[in-house]
Design a protein that fits this description.
This is Nucleotide modification associated domain-containing protein. The chain is mainly alpha-helical and about 110 residues long. About 70% of the residues lie in helices and about 0% in strands. About 10% of the residues are buried.
Length: about 110
């Protein structure tokens, strides 16, 4: 942004922080591939299930699980370790989200 900034100075600090976080996370999700490739990959998977109820908490948990699984698989396929989250952390997230989905299914059956 060239010239004088007219917005709140703290907002510019927050935006810089957000840009840095986006940069680090995108390294994990893209690693030189398409910058938003993780969204394309997941959208292709989700498209296979047009009848999903996106208001179902178990489905929400599984979609979050797929996000972590996609990140893990991309790291494995590209041969790198995550900068913000390791492969191990991604797999632990998969376990957590699977457990959450199981709890949601149990509670939904009441």
């Amino acid at each position: 942004m060239a010239g004088r900034k007219h917005g709140h100075p703290r907002l510019y600090e927050i935006l810089t922080e957000a840009a840095d976080l986006h940069n680090r996370k995108n390294r994990d999700y893209a690693q030189g591939g398409e910058p938003l490739g993780n969204f394309d990959r997941r959208a292709a998977i989700y498209g296979l299930y047009p009848g999903l109820d996106l208001t179902d908490p178990a489905i929400v948990a599984v979609l979050d699980l797929l996000k972590q699984l996609d990140a893990y698989l991309w790291m494995k396929s590209e041969g790198y370790e995550g900068e913000t989250e390791s492969k191990r952390a991604r797999l632990l997230d998969v376990l957590v989200y699977a457990g959450i989905a199981m709890i949601q299914e149990e509670e939904d059956g009441r």
